[in-house]
Each structure stands twice: as structure tokens, then as C-alpha cells.
């Protein structure tokens, strides 16, 4: 709640939050804003330009693009948030344990992160999905196996700094339980940079999910995922440019929203003074 109160301190954060709320509100109100089923085919209405009845036009199957873009927002945001925050929770735990205990525990966990970190992000995700097969479930698995690394390294560095502070050293002298110290004193401070990083990670993940669908390795048609909408529009870019334009703008919009929100979080979580 304190973070939300402080977000208006940053104009960028406030704008990002408004953009995200507008997106969420539009997805909730879509059934009332547009009567069309995102999956319903109507070949008689195929490739119609944007109009009062079809705000974003229709695709080659006569499906309403506005409805499909809004349904895609739910699809992509759900995928992206799960693919970011589940690995984040695991990475924060790993990084905190490595930084707090040090020694062989730190060495073993960091060598593991070094191995995964050696491979480019997209290459590793593509390889995992390529081996497991194209499906939504396998996307979750691939992103979990890759996405936790960054959080582990960030939180490990923060934890090592926090562990050297006098009040943390005092808890060791007083023989406070390690789990209690980590949960009450280390975690709230160490997780701050991870939260800021997660916003840019959401942007990267939305783009990666769209790219995976574009190459046929992500969510499969007829799901209204933004990458799929762009793939389906490639052959019709001259005749019906709106088929590509609006899903592309949706990806840009959500990317800007989370980037600004990340900047706002950075300001809101920064100590005063």
C-alpha cells in the first residue's frame, strides 16, 4: 500500500499505472463494448476496415480484431505475469539463501546460475520449448527454468550487503533464528531491486511470448494471443494493414506501461532523503 501511495511521486509511474488500469478496464468491459465472439467465424465480414461496428476491423476469417486484441491482453498478461513472478519467487529465495549463508552454499548456487547465464535468454527458451514441444504449459516450464537466474543474482548481491550491516550482525550475536532474520529483516530490503527489475522483465516476457507464437513454438491458434494475431496477418499486410497494426500497438502499449511503472516503482521504493 505504501508503494501505491508513493507511485504518484513519479509522473512516469502514475502514467504507467493509468495505462495498465485502462488496459484492465477495457478487457473487463469488452463484452459490453463489443458484442462479437473472439472465436466466431464470419466469412461474409472478412477483412473489413475499422468501422463503428468493428472498431479495429476484422481479420481474414471475419473475426472482430478489437475483441481478439482484448482477449489477447488477458491471455498475454496472464502468461507474462506467471512466467515472471513464479520464477521471481524462486530466484529471490535462492539468492537470499546464497547471500546470507555464503560459503559452499553460495558457491554451489552461483555456479548453477553461471551455467544457465552463459546461454542467451531467447536461445535457451527456444531450445527448451523445442525439446518439450509447443504448448502453453511448456512455455511456463521454459520461462521458469530460465527467468529465476536474474532475480537470484540481484537478491544475492543485496543480501550480502545487508548481511554486513550492524543490526544483522547483532542478531547473529543474540542467536536469533536464521530463518526469522531472513524473513523479517533481509527479505523486505533485498526484494526491492527485484521488484523494479520485474517490470522490465514483464516487458521482455510479453515480447518473448509473442515471438515464440510467431515462430510456432508458443501458444497455438486459434487462441487470440498477440503473436498469433500478427502471424495470421502477415499475408494480408497490404490488403488489411489493421490486422497487423492493432496487435502490434497492443504489445507496444503494454511494454510502455510496464516500463513506466518500473520507473515509478524505482522512485517509490527509493529511500527519502
UniProtKB/TrEMBL annotation:
GO biological process: transmembrane transport
InterPro entries: BP-dependent_transpt_permease, MetI-like, MetI-like_sf, OppC_N
Gene Ontology cellular component list: plasma membrane
Record has Transmembrane helix as a keyword: yes
Domain ABC transmembrane type-1, residue spans: 73-262
Principal cellular location given in the protein's record: membrane
Any Pfam family hit: OppC_N
CDD domains referenced in this protein's UniProt entry, alphabetically: TM_PBP2 (cd06261)
Cell compartment(s), UniProt: Cell membrane
Similarity section: Belongs to the binding-protein-dependent transport system permease family.
Protein name as catalogued: ABC transporter permease
Amino acid at each position: 500500500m505504501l508503494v501505491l501511495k508513493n507511485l504518484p511521486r513519479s509522473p512516469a509511474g502514475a502514467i504507467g499505472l493509468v495505462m495498465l488500469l485502462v488496459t484492465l478496464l477495457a478487457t473487463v468491459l469488452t463484452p459490453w463494448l463489443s458484442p462479437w465472439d473472439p472465436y466466431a467465424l464470419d466469412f461474409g465480414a472478412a477483412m473489413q476496415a475499422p468501422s463503428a461496428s468493428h472498431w479495429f476491423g476484422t481479420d481474414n476469417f471475419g473475426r472482430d480484431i478489437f475483441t481478439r486484441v482484448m482477449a489477447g491482453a488477458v491471455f498475454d498478461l496472464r502468461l507474462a505475469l506467471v512466467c515472471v513472478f513464479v520464477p521471481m519467487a524462486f530466484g529471490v529465495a535462492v539468492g537470499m539463501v546464497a547471500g546470507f549463508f555464503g560459503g559452499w552454499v553460495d558457491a554451489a548456487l552461483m555456479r548453477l546460475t553461471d551455467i544457465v547465464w552463459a546461454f542467451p535468454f531467447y536461445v535457451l527458451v527456444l531450445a527448451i520449448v523445442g525439446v518439450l514441444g509447443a504448448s502453453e504449459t511448456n512455455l511456463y516450464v521454459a520461462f521458469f527454468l530460465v527467468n529465476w537466474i536474474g532475480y537470484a543474482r540481484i537478491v544475492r548481491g543485496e543480501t550480502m550487503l545487508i548481511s554486513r550491516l550492524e543490526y544483522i550482525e547483532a542478531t547473529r550475536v543474540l542467536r536469533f533464528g536464521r530463518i526469522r532474520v531472513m524473513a523479517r529483516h533481509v527479505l523486505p530490503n533485498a526484494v526491492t531491486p527485484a521488484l523494479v527489475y520485474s517490470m522490465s522483465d514483464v516487458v521482455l516476457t510479453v515480447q518473448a511470448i509473442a515471438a515464440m507464437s510467431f515462430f510456432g513454438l508458443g501458444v497455438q491458434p486459434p487462441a487470440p494471443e498477440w503473436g498469433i494475431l500478427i502471424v495470421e496477418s502477415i499475408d494480408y499486410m497490404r490488403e488489411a494493414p489493421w490486422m497487423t497494426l492493432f496487435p502490434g500497438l497492443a504489445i507496444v502499449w503494454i511494454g510502455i506501461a510496464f516500463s513506466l511503472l518500473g520507473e515509478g516503482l524505482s522512485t517509490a521504493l527509493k529511500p527519502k532523503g
